[in-house]
Amino acid sequence: MAINSQYTFVLSLIVAGLSFAFALWKIYSTLLRPYRTSLRNLPGPPSPSWLFGNLKEIWNDESSVLHEEWVKQYGPNIIYRGFGNMDTLCTMDTRALNHILTHSNEYQKPEHARGNLARILGKAQIRELTEIFVEKAIQASAAQGVLLCDLSFVQLRDVWRAEIDKQGEPARIEVLSWLGKMTLDVIGLAGFNYTFDALDVTKKPNELTLAFQEIFNSSMEMSFYNILRTFLPILRILPNKRAQRTDDAQRVMRTIGKQLIEEKKAAVMKELAAEKADGVVERKDLQAATCSHC
């Protein structure tokens, strides 16, 4: 009996010690380490809030406008303050961007940002799918993907021309949202042979398009509680309207995604079963090419 009590006491001490060490590490990595970084030597705008830093300024302004003003004032490499006044690097230096993009394993998004993306898009198994997509699927569909990009650029050009004609010259167009819609169209056609019609202003958005819009719009909502949910995962168990909307949109995406995969698998199996004279099976998109190699 005494041995069991001693064992329980020692085990409790070990658990408490590990928990305390983990808490100290999280406090250091989240709150203290950013204040010891060499980024603090870079110029940047003053922080108007000890809690939100420059975030409210950024979110209340148009996309990238404030960043461009800061770059003009302080140079191509600046820092601004995020939540808790933590330093955030902003660079428009092409050499720095090239280095970062070619060393993506070393320059990853912060842990809380990766967590947000995982909740929005799901934990994609990129490493496991690299061989299928890069070495096989992309080779099979690369030419068509380029063609789809060209066609989408033409459609985007026509949309902007119509907007300019409607506003009259000079016209002001918010291009980032339109580029996002064009990207959605290209991904849908090249990747899944699915038509989003995000650039077609004459059509009502379909269910999957609305789901994507809801997810990314909800992820852009800023409030003190939403930020706390990002840094304190335990708060995510509490009911939240934003989280409910995101869950509903993800449910739509999963349902339609599973349907697309099943339809594509059936189509690929039908093509493989058909004995073509030339022995070539047509692959119309990345998903079809991937399914044929699974």
TrEMBL record:
Keywords: Membrane, Transmembrane, Transmembrane helix. It comes from the Eukaryota. InterPro entries: CYP46A1, Cyt_P450, Cyt_P450_sf. Pfam families: p450. The chain crosses the membrane at residues 6-28. One of its GO terms (molecular function) is iron ion binding. Gene3D superfamilies: Cytochrome P450. GO terms for biological process: cholesterol catabolic process. PANTHER family: CYP46A1 PROTEIN-RELATED (PTHR24293:SF0), CYTOCHROME P450 FAMILY 46 SUBFAMILY A (PTHR24293). This is Cholesterol 24-hydroxylase.
